[in-house]
Structure formats: C-alpha cells, structure tokens
Write a structure and sequence with these properties.
By secondary structure, this protein is an alpha+beta fold. It is 34% helix and 22% strand.
Length: 134
C-alpha cells in the first residue's frame, strides 16, 4: 500500500510539471463595476491592467497578462464580473512582490477602486506548470 501511495504522488507531481523548482503562479481577479462607470473609465481600467506588464518594477515580475470584459451573458446563479485579469508569475515570491508593489497599488488606487462595485472582488492564486499557457 505504501508503494502504491508513493507511486500516485510521483505520478501526480510529474503531470503537474513539478521538477523540484518553484512552480509558476497564476493570479485571477474579477470584479463588477459601479452602475455609473463611464465607458472611458472602463477602457482606462482595462488599459491600466494590460499595461502593468510594461511598468517599471512590474515588468520583471509579470510573465504574462490577459484582461477580459464580460460578454453580458446572464447566469442564473447571479451577476457576472465586469472585468477579469489573469496574471502569471514565475513563482509565489514574484506574486507576493507584485501584490505589495507600489506600481500595482497605484493601478488599484487610480483605476480599480474608483469604479469597482464594493464587495464584488473575487480572486484566486494557484500553481501552474508553465506561464502563459492554459
């Protein structure tokens, strides 16, 4: 039984891309926008999120970024987010550095908080075997 358990653990680790090195991290965040958010403010928000990959201090941390806007297809379980960002990092340490970085906090303060519906933010961070690939 012990051998079988060890085999299963080894098999799972190889299929997840584990090589003994820190795994990449994907951060996904979504939120709804206030009802009175202008299309210009929404466009500026999307541009700021997309532009994080080229900001000084963040460009060395972020390996890939994708930003999407909701298509407006209703779901019976409740309202969708309006904007989503998927950001990949080489490691958990890079994600943690990004999370507290002044340039990231500036995007939050200047572009997200002014238009985000209170309490609508959802986020998750998880390991991925390779950045930039689904």
């Amino acid at each position: 039984f012990q051998f079988k358990l060890l085999f299963l653990v080894a098999d799972v680790s190889t299929t997840c891309g584990f090589t003994g090195y820190p795994m990449a991290v994907r951060h996904i965040v979504s939120f709804r926008l206030k009802a009175d958010t202008s299309s210009e403010a929404k466009s500026a928000l999307v541009g700021a999120l997309q532009g994080m990959i080229s900001r000084d201090g963040l460009k060395d941390l972020i390996k890939a970024v994708r930003v999407g806007e909701d298509l407006g297809i209703p779901h019976p379980s409740g309202p969708n987010g309006a904007v989503v960002a998927m950001v990949d990092f080489a490691s958990q340490a890079d994600y943690e550095a990004y999370a507290g970085h002044a340039e990231h906090l500036k995007v939050i303060g200047d572009f997200i908080k002014p238009v985000m519906e209170a309490g609508s933010r959802n986020a998750i961070q998880f390991n991925i075997p390779e950045v930039g690939k689904l």
